[in-house]
Amino acid sequence: MTRLAAPPESTRWWPEAGGGKPLRQRVAEADAALSDAFRAGEPVEGLVAARAWVVEQAVLEAWAVEATRRDDLALLAVGGFGRGELFPRSDVDLLVLAGGPLGADAAAPIERFFARLWDEGLNVGHAVRTPAECGEGAAADVTILTNLLDARLLAGRGDLAEAMRVAIAPGRVWPPARFAAAKLAEQQARHARFHDTAYNLEPNLKEGPGGLRDYQTIVWVAQRQFGGPGLAAMRQAGLLGAEEAEALEAARRTLWRIRYGLHLLARRAEERLLFEHQRELASVFGYADEHAQNLAVEQFMQGYYRAAMTVDRLNERLLQCLDEARAAAFGPVAQQALDADFVAAGGFLDTREPGLIERRPAAILQGFAHLLDAPYLQGFSAALLRRLDAVLPRLDERFRDDPAVHAGFLAILRHPGDVAGALARMSRYGVLARLLPAFGRVAGRMQYDLFHVYTVDQHTLFVIRNIRRFADPASATELPLAHELYARLRKPELLLLAGIFHDIAKGRGGDHSELGERDARDFCTRIGLSATDADLVAWLVRQHLLMSITAQKQDISDPVVVHRFASVVADAERLDYLYLLTVADIRGTSPRLWNSWKDQLLAELHRAARYVLRRGLEHPVHAHERALETRAAALDQLRDAGVDPAASQALWESFPDDVFLRSTPEQIAWQTRAILDAGAGGEPLVALRDSGHGTTEAFVYSPDRDGLFATITAALDRAQLDVLDARIVTSTRGYSLDTFQVLDADGRPLDDPARARQLLARLRDELSRPTLALAPARRARGRRERQFQVPVQVEFSPSGERTQLGLLCADRPGLLAHVARALRSCGVRVHDARIATFGERAEDFFLLSDEHDRPLDLACQDRLRIAILNEIEDLPRDSASAAAAASA
Questions:
Q1: What are the residues whose beta carbons fall under 8 Å from the beta carbon of 180, sequence distance 6 or more?
Q2: In this predicted model, what pLDDT tens digit does every residue of 675-685 receive, in sequence order?
Q3: Which of 205, 210, 431, 508 could bridge across to 426 with cysteines, CB 3.0–4.6 Å?
Q4: Domain 176-332 classification at class level
Q5: Cα 418–Cα 421–Cα 423 angle in degrees, nearest 5
Q6: What CATH number labels 10-174?
Q7: pTM for the complete prediction?
């Protein structure tokens, strides 16, 4: 191929008479017209081709001015420009071929040519080589060869272009098999940079899994193998079916539209679908919010993810298909019989007779079972995958009601092998969506926040993978309780079913737990589970958030909280299943979400609830009894450490019961020793230790005075430490016993001794000042966080003799320190703080009283609400909070 054919209505983009306008102006006007056409909904294929043609006219004009006096050169378009594909901000890749080495005089016109293109506003990538140098470069670097595969002659000597093609021919460099292996390795390395998933929150349209580079890799490998246009050659060879080609082109068209719009919005060659562009593109493409669980941006991104999934899936299949075709060229592939229906051939699974799955669809499940039995198999053969694609649309209610299908699916769930891998492959091949249509509806379903970093279907598969990992002996060290509980489950497949259904109703509107419960019960009944087992799965789906919410948002040292949780759970078996589902769910939501502190919270809630259930719900544990047990255990530890019991008990006379109710014996023993060792000097005591639960514990024992909590939180914030939990208690002698669980910015304990010493010194210095006035630092929110608007909600509720404050708002650096300053300004005392962050959203709870240890009255609540809103005034407010502020 040489010069591009003029597109229809070519004068619309590039009038033949330039009218004396500079080249730069004409290119800009053409780009503006193309942009208007895109927004008017014109097909993207025509616009991409039209822009390539426009740029080609500009390049040829510049070449005519600067280089036509040379008769030993050839000008070639390479890369995307060579294919005739240019997006609004794409690079223009050019290659100048020379018959031999160029001296300074000969090189000058070429340099002027490239400089002129840059001056005219084109982003030019260029090289000057001889055909022999092209061959040498291609032999050394497969990316150079790849770029040259799309070379197209624009002007000059055609024999040089032909010499270059000869120099890079498969007989000289990179024969098809070696080229395919290199491109696959290159693709795998590229995918690894994006965590091997197409479901990144801010995906890369070009380089990421399922991106345009994956589409083009199929074309390049086929082009190298057949020596002609890639996809057309595959169609002719019978390796690409009409439906596959249609699906691939539809996905490519979707990605092209998004990329075209992204370049226009970003006004640069941006390939990352960043949060700041996702909402705008959703609007450009005409999406509208359906309801709070199905936003326009989520619908738009689901379209992207589904297109990327299609490219990713067909990339794997077609590369496999090409590989099988190369192998077949050397003779028939040996087959090994697996049973009467299936064989292994070339490392893949196939059927003995082509019509098996068409005649008996339940055999599809049998095939996945064979993959579990024979892990050396890499998957279904390309031929079997094509037959599966043809069968999928016909897998209707008869398939879903087939007892053989039910038995096959349960056999997979009960298999001791890689069940998570089998379900992931069932999802990838489209079978899981036919078996569970609701699962198909959440394919590619994202939630527009920073908490859920995967689409619903990908998250679900990660949860399944996490559940199966509990059986791995390695988990006995990392997750000992989960490993122990999983080993004694009555039916592990019930936990897997709960994992499959726990989020399956997201995006429908309404409570996804309730809707998912109904789906789970219907499915379990359909496949023949007993009423008892169906009830357990349905209950787990309905309550899958209960344990997480209780552990992270409530005080699980309070026997009333634990008893209330245990009353909902009702029996020990449910408790074990729920604990395992909760751990798998949290670990499958975000790589940064799980930490040792959450591990400890959940384990402690499981232990406490199990004790309540064994004791009997009719015999609740009372606070006084719990406090006495903790006191006795702490005294034993101190006695073993050589501490005088009388001194400990004398000190404890000033400790309120809250200390023994809300602390562990280990904490009390450590704090008691620190206080006794410090003596009675009256100076603020600050101590740090490794909590043993993945956090650093900071303890402050100081005369209680105005601003103490605010100063401590400000100092911790300035040390860039995140507070996860705060326990604030005041002794009868007027001393504050404040305990903080903290992590550094990377979610790790403070394990640097020098940094720990600096923190201790800073806290002691600030707390020793006559007036406590350390202000929190003001730091800007990150780029990602700024894209999410979380309305501020400030809610008060009674909690015994105190008042609970619930704060929901956008997270940002130093949030707790700013809230603490608001609390101080209103003369409010803090007794407890539960700090939880879910992506961009902070959900914090504080137990408060006034300065006389009484609950906050309505007037104080109003003052505090306004103070908090003023302190975090740069965040959006909800209507209720805004109205309260306006009326004050």
A1: 221, 224, 225, 319, 322, 323, 326
A2: 999 886 778 99
A3: 431
A4: mainly alpha
A5: 110
A6: 3.30.460.10
A7: 0.85
